[in-house]
Write a structure and sequence with these properties.
The protein is an all-alpha fold and about 70 residues long. It is elongated. The protein starts with 11 loop residues before the first helix and ends with a helix.
Length: about 70
């Protein structure tokens, strides 16, 4: 069975645990998540959300004569 654990390497405890885990040759695997282009299926980036929100707000305002 595999377990997903999130460690914050900006903290002393996180760095200590990472250092200890890296000693093991088997049974430990690291997946490094990057923030670039790492958008899970069904989600969107905040930039995409803002772009779509502006379009929808503009359409709503035009439809109701606000703009």
């Amino acid at each position: 069975m595999e377990h997903t654990v999130y460690l914050d390497d900006t903290t002393a405890n996180g760095r200590k645990l990472l250092k200890e885990l890296r000693q093991y040759q088997t049974g430990v695997r690291f997946d490094y998540m990057t923030t670039e282009n790492a958008v899970p299926d069904g989600y969107m980036t905040s930039e995409e959300f803002r772009r779509r929100a502006v379009i929808k707000v503009n359409k709503f305002c035009e439809l109701h004569g606000i703009l």
